[in-house]
Amino acid sequence: MTVAREAGAPPTSLPRPTGGSARPGRGGRRGPVGSGAWPYLLVAPALLGMLYLLAYPLVRTVLISLQDFQLRQLIQGDARFVGLRNYETLLTDAHFWQVVRRTFLFMAVNVTLIMLLATLVALVIERLGRVGRVTVLSALVLTWAMPVIAATTVFQWLFHSEFGIVNWALQQLGFTSFDRYPWFAHGPAAFVILVALIVWQSVPFAAITLYSALVTVPTELYESARIDGASARRIFRAITFPMIRPIFMLVFSLEVIWTFKAFVQIWVMTNGGPGDATTILPVYAVQTALSSQRYDLGSAASMVTVLMLAGVLVFYFRQMFRQEGEAL
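Above: the chain sequence. Below: its structure as tokens.
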């Protein structure tokens, strides 16, 4: 029905409907008051599970590190608080600081090799054809998917003093001194084998992640740089690395965390030996807790490890943001 009105007359307002419900719209009524809590109820089980699996062990470790908690206290449950005495005992131990230095050396060597090799592998994959790219990526994924225990066992057999293929290959090349050479009985040799194992396990993830960042760099930038006569090294420094810097820094920080807390490979392959040649902080904490039945000192060592790792990452990120001209 058309409503007509004379020119100049005020507009006629139509009466509002008295019954029915208003169609929900942008300015309509909201749902029930309790509907806003429904998403939180859905994520509550996962959140509670995460708190139980992560927060509770951390809090429990802090409490044990502040108690006199040995085998008798573990059985009887009558541990008493001693404050920071465990941390004082730990920080005044010369052997502990030897382990700390070895841990940082282990982390620095591993992270440097991982990031260098992963960057080179990612650059090579980018320049391969389709068949070569698929082949290399498949090999990286299979290497990355191998269980840690299985890979560690393979490396143990590779460097076995009597049946290892490494000793056999070296003898075939004329190095007769490696006949029945006990790799795991020498500290530097065991350290190098562990570094090779962790680098071999970590490079696939870093290389695939960096390759995914490389394919996002616009090809027009490369073409313009080549027209200007820039060399490959100049292109990488001026174009490639600045474009993939965020992903590179993310992978770098993840590798720092993973290598700093490496435990399974060392515990299975050398158990921290020979002597203390491959003992780093996580292994030291377990040895102190299990071998010496000093769960309080082991917990204190674990907390010191967490604090040191957090300090390394905070320092690193501050330097990174400072270089980018941002304030932390």
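The chain has 13 helices and no strands.
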